Amino acid sequence: MEKSLIEESARYNLGKLLRQLPIATVLPFNAKKAAVFQYKTLFKLLNEAKDTVYGREHEFAAILASNNIVEGFSEIPIRDYLGMKPYWQKAFEGERDVAWPEGVSYFALSSGTTDNASKYIPVTQQMLKSIKRAGTRQLMQVARTDFPKDYLTKDYLFVGGSTDLEFNGNNYSGDLSGITTSNLPIWMQRFSKPEPYIKSQKIWADKIDMMVKNAPDWDIAMIAGVPAWIQILFERIINEYKLNTIHDIWPHLSVYVHGGVSFRPYKKSFDKYLGKPLKYFETYLASEGFIAFQMKENSKGMRLVFKNGIYYEFIPFNSQNFDSNGELLSSAKCIGLGQVQENTDYAIIISTCSGAWRYLIGDTVRFTDVNLCEIEITGRTKHFLSLCGEHLSVDNMNEAVSKTAEDLGIEINEYTVKGIRDGNGFIHNWYLAVNNEIIDEALIKQKIDFYLKASNDDYRVERQHALKDIVIKILPKEVFLTWMDSRGKTGSQNKFPRVMNDILYQQWLQFIKDSKHILQGST
After folding, report:
1. What is the 8-class DSSP label of residue 251?
2. pLDDT tens, residue by residue, 49-102
3. Are 181 and 224 in contact (CB under 8 A)?
4. How many CA atoms lie within 13 A of 92 on its CB side?
5. What tens digit of pLDDT does each residue of 460-489 get?
6. Is the dihedral of CA 435, 439, 442, 446 positive or negative?
7. Cis amide prior to 77 (ω within 30 degrees)
8. Where would you tag: which of 124, 292, 327, 399 has the fewest CB atoms within 10 A of its CB?
């Protein structure tokens, strides 16, 4: 009874606060102010880390004393995970003041779509605070819409990794969503679902079963998670309780916060689970930090998060800076926020309050609005196809798949692509997840090829020369899900690789060969 009274009191006080928020008032923002924020952030990061091992090796103190700290900082080498790993490994083993002036409390395990190797990314207490601040800012933006304010005191469902983290005697490690969920602000914990004992489950299938069982007890107004797994949860709940839509059990569900992968390929199949439209807000929460989130419901891009412990740089993603395998060239040059242009792909470089320094995280972004510093994620530096100069990005692929599905009135739940050599030319092998449809593979091929040519001139030219053909293979959705499960990549923030490397592709072909029972069951 006492717990119930406390919860009601918390809901009342939070609701009172949120109802007082100015709905239409948004502080003025532009790129010039962002540049000032960035300079202050870089100064603060360098000053705090100047006495660490990394700071001494790279003479942070001298950079701070120079006439131009931005120019001085740009002389420090750009590093990927392997470049930062020697420093982060020392912190993982308990050493303090390595790349950041404290011990590291948590390490986030990356989702690892390229291979099976786990990456341990440091998450300091300062980074946790910055993630909480950014998450609260996004919630406030939701509150500024016509989203009913009373709904903000209902339940929020976070579908993420286990909060039962691994402890090595020095620090904890696990999925970033598990780390952040176990460190929610106190006021949000009262509205957060599922219950702690469900959040701690490590076996994804058991967690889904428990969420399905408890679904009638929750009054969900907002949900967050990777699209593929949210769809699975909705489908399970609807089938279990013989519902028409998810709104039959959660009538107040109004907002979906999504991230991790593009939502476009999932939109059509997602809509069928809904009884009414949702408000969609995209978020860019990487293992390395909270990078951006969608400010307004209909914004095309997400605004970079500033004044929050992250300094940004950008490298044009082109053949002058990256080789055909997506590896950074030694001659590559970074540019700052004041030099970026719209509709150009950039590899994003970050320095953070977790001890990442000029770190190439592997994502590519495009500015949709330079003045508002709004971006969209276009893919990964190593998840693109350029066998013969076609320069095909994941963003191009997502667009072609979603438009093809819309034209044909079908659902394409997942896909992956592998480019291979064929004699003197090349072929793109496409594998699409389509269930319970009579499919004309030739028509799908025609549609995807058409949309790729329309969005990418390099692809269009190469289809007349070295890129001889594209091949379409339709598979049941279960093949994709079972493949993820076989690799220990089921659930949470894990997602299917859109472009496969050689090693993964051979494993994928063998898995398809061994999945005859699934393929036969779909016929």
Report:
1. T
2. 999 999 999 999 999 999 999 999 999 999 999 999 999 999 999 999 999 998
3. no
4. 16
5. 888 988 899 999 999 988 898 888 878 766
6. negative
7. no
8. 327
